[in-house]
Automatic annotation (TrEMBL), chain A:
InterPro entries, sorted: AAA+_ATPase (IPR003593), ABC_transporter-like_ATP-bd (IPR003439), P-loop_NTPase (IPR027417)
Gene Ontology molecular function: ATP binding; ATP hydrolysis activity
Family: Belongs to the ABC transporter superfamily.
Residues covered by the ABC transporter domain: 59-284
Pfam families, per the entry: ABC_tran
Organism, scientific name: Novipirellula herctigrandis
Keyword Ribonucleoprotein among record annotations: no
Superkingdom, taxonomy of origin: Bacteria
The UniProt record lists the keyword Transport: yes
Record protein name field: Putative ABC transporter ATP-binding protein YbhF
Keywords: ATP-binding, Nucleotide-binding, Transport
SMART domains for this protein: AAA
Entry-linked SUPFAM superfamilies: P-loop containing nucleoside triphosphate hydrolases
From TrEMBL, chain B:
Source species: Novipirellula herctigrandis
Protein name as catalogued: ABC-2 family transporter protein
Annotated Gene Ontology cellular component terms: plasma membrane
PROSITE patterns: PROKAR_LIPOPROTEIN (PS51257)
Keywords, comma-separated and alphabetical: Membrane, Transmembrane, Transmembrane helix
Length: 370, 321
């Protein structure tokens, strides 16, 4: 009997499953809803006004693709981010994370699909998108002839929602000396400065491409705290990172990209319900009861000693699973939480694993076929 | 169309180059006029006459070299003046997109709510204003030189003409008398207004061309290379067009044919101050009305800027390397 998954709630109290379903049912809502939201945003610096459930969707892409000659940088990518999410973007180098972000901000022109950021199409009006979004590039380079404070002032003046006071505050939190010229700053100092620039304006959406790169552990923790603070103040955050522990700590949703494709999507609350058990047994085959069929995946590997190594991946409530495991006469049992690392490796190796939530297009095609 | 903060940024970025080029142009123009006062071209007349067949390579008739306005006007064809203007135009034009892309700073600037057109127009506005000021500094340098320099002229001795033979005989055998007078008595600085405008038009085209190359590239060194290569190619075409009659058609396809600052000085000398600004009247030794030439350069520059805007808006912006 499949275990009922508890309702997942995002930080602003919305039921994410409901949001996902709403997104799936309204496949075309991306376009329709955008007109409403665009109308709301047309006033200069007008704050985003929620006009209904669909307005909780901050970002949606449908089949977004980017092709350079023969090379597909991004293929048929469909992603939706709800208001208040901290959405993690994971994938190896060259997987398409930065391409996706650059498409959302209008740096690149898509070769297929469409996307809306806060209801605005970046292809049609990328300036309006950037009025509502602050973006930290993966390799943020700043005018070298300016001093730190000059850079903060420059960007605070550039953005209609710019807040020099807040930027200086962030710089102080990150222990950055803003009197130094950018040309004489270390890589880490420049990253801190870029973060102070980006965390100044209070835009509804914050996109951070590897925000903690080149930072020491203390500052990393501060940055993550600032990201959570941004989320708590009602902003939505999308961040890409290679540091899995950071994603695990702060994100509530994660997407994995591989070879330009969206390989997997994950609710972090799902992940916390997953475990991997390893043990050994004496050559017996293990039968999974029907009631637990969709909650466990068993892999067995015979060893030279005549014993069989067993690996059981579990999802959901451990209670009934433990009862079953207890009946298996296993030895050397070890349980460990199913970390993001495991999922990442599985996605990277192209493996399937228990509870793998299908990516959006697969789920939709399932619905259509049913 | 323009962004105040970007304007401020570009002014700050270009100020060092502007002051360097401006100082060089002003000082050189001044000194160039002063040097004019030191050399008595009359002494070189015989030598110059021997090179009459090469007159076609010169930007003006040799006769102009023996007049003060003609010699002062040569300032606008001096390699140093052209070099400084070209340096400004290529440096600023190549900076706008490929320069910022190369430095990686375009990413952060364009993450702000500014359109690509706004960025390009703001940059172009600062560069064009800088170019105009540099051209005015050349004129100001010439003006300062003209007002600060005195020239010594030899007074022709009184003569008597022998009838029938028609020979002038001097009435005195003493050393010729000289008089010192300010150069401004011989040269009207307003003569060079049209030449200054030609210099601006020349720079405007080069600036537009560099901006166009910059908008399609991601490496500044390649933009600079392409612009300089085009410039040299056009210059060679201009030289060949003048050298061989069979290659005269090359003169029609090089922008150097439209740069005629000294011709403008000559026209002013013969036709008056308003003559170079005519859009209808064709004067001797030029194919078109004088004002058409700089307007062709400015028109080509506008086309380059427009194409640059289209290219920049249509292109994908790569991530910094």
């Amino acid at each position: 009997m499949p275990q009922a998954t508890p309702a997942k709630r995002n930080p602003v109290g919305k039921n994410i499953d409901e949001l996902d379903t709403a997104c799936l049912v309204n496949r075309n809502s991306c376009t329709e809803n955008s007109e409403l939201t665009l109308a709301n945003n047309k006033g200069h610096n007008a704050p985003h006004q929620a006009t209904g459930d669909q307005d909780d969707e901050v970002l949606c892409c449908e089949g977004l693709s980017k092709r350079y000659g023969d090379f597909d940088a991004l293929i048929d990518c469909s992603v939706r981010i709800a208001r208040g999410d901290i959405f993690g973007l994971l994938g190896p180098n060259g997987a398409g994370k930065t391409t996706l972000i650059r498409l959302l901000l209008g740096y690149l022109h898509p070769t297929g699909g469409q996307c809306k950021v806060l209801g605005i199409d970046p292809v049609a009006d990328s300036v309006e998108v950037r009025r509502q979004v602050t973006y930290l590039p993966g390799d943020a380079r700043l005018p070298r002839h300016l001093r730190g404070d000059g850079v903060l002032r420059f960007f605070a003046e550039m953005h209609p929602l710019g807040d020099l006071h807040r930027s200086r505050e962030v710089a102080e939190i990150l222990e950055l000396n803003t009197k130094t010229r950018v040309a004489f700053m270390s890589t880490g100092m420049r990253q801190k400065l870029a973060l102070a620039v980006v965390l100044g304006p209070q835009t509804p959406l914050l996109i951070l491409d590897e925000p903690t790169a080149n930072l020491d552990p203390t500052v990393r923790a501060e940055v993550l705290r600032l990201v959570i603070e941004a989320r708590d103040s009602g902003r939505t955050v999308m961040l890409s990172s290679h540091v899995l522990s950071e994603i695990e700590d702060i994100c509530n949703r994660v997407a994995f990209l591989r070879h330009g494709r969206l390989a997997h999507e994950l609710q972090m609350s799902d992940l916390f319900q997953r475990h991997r058990m390893t043990a050994t047994t004496v050559g017996e085959s293990i039968m999974v009861p029907d009631a637990l069929a969709d909650q466990v995946v068993v892999r067995t590997t015979p060893s030279k000693t005549g014993r069989t190594r067993v690996q059981i991946d579990t999802a959901g409530d451990l209670g009934p699973i433990l009862t079953w495991i207890d009946s298996l006469c296993l030895t050397h049992i070890r349980f460990e939480p199913f970390g993001l690392r495991t999922v990442y490796d599985a996605v990277h190796d192209g493996q399937s694993f228990l509870g793998a939530k299908k990516t959006l297009p697969d789920r939709v095609s399932d619905e259509v076929s049913s | 169309m323009m962004n105040r903060v970007l304007l401020k940024k570009y002014i700050g970025q270009s100020s060092l180059l502007f002051f360097s080029c401006g100082l060089a142009l002003f000082a050189f123009s001044w000194i160039r006029v002063w040097v004019v006062s030191l050399i008595d071209m009359g002494q070189f007349q015989t030598i110059v006459e021997q090179f009459r067949e090469f007159e076609k390579f010169a930007p003006i008739e040799f006769d102009s070299l023996f007049t003060y306005p003609g010699r002062v006007g040569m300032t606008f064809d001096e390699p140093i003046v052209i070099l400084c203007i070209v340096i400004w135009c290529v440096a600023r034009g190549s900076d706008v997109i490929s320069g910022e892309l190369g430095r990686g700073t375009l990413e952060m600037v364009l993450s702000q709510p500014v359109s690509r057109t706004q960025l390009l127009v703001s940059h172009a506005a600062v560069s064009i204003l800088g170019l105009a000021l540099l051209c005015l500094l050349v004129w100001a340098g010439v003006g300062a030189g003209v007002y600060a320099t005195t020239v010594e002229e030899t007074l022709p001795p009184p003569t008597v003409r022998i009838p029938i033979v028609g020979i002038d005989l001097p009435l005195s055998v003493d050393d010729p008398q000289t008089q010192t007078l300010p150069l401004r008595d011989r040269v009207d600085v307003r003569v060079f207004a049209a030449s200054t405008f030609h210099l601006f038009a020349f720079g405007f085209f080069v600036l537009g061309l560099a901006t166009l190359f910059s908008s399609t590239d991601r490496y500044r060194w390649r933009t600079v290379g392409s612009t300089v290569a085009f410039y040299i190619l056009q210059m060679v075409m201009f030289g060949l067009g003048k050298a061989a009659e069979s290659l005269e058609y090359l003169l029609y396809i090089t922008f150097f044919s439209c740069y005629k600052p000294q011709k403008m000085s000559s026209i002013v000398a013969s036709e008056g101050l308003a003559a170079p600004w005519s859009l209808t009247h064709v004067y001797s030794n030029i194919w078109l009305p004088p004002m058409v030439y700089p307007l062709i350069l400015i028109g080509l520059g506008v086309v380059c800027f427009s194409l640059a805007t289209v290219c920049f808006n249509k292109r994908d912006l790569p991530a910094p390397l």
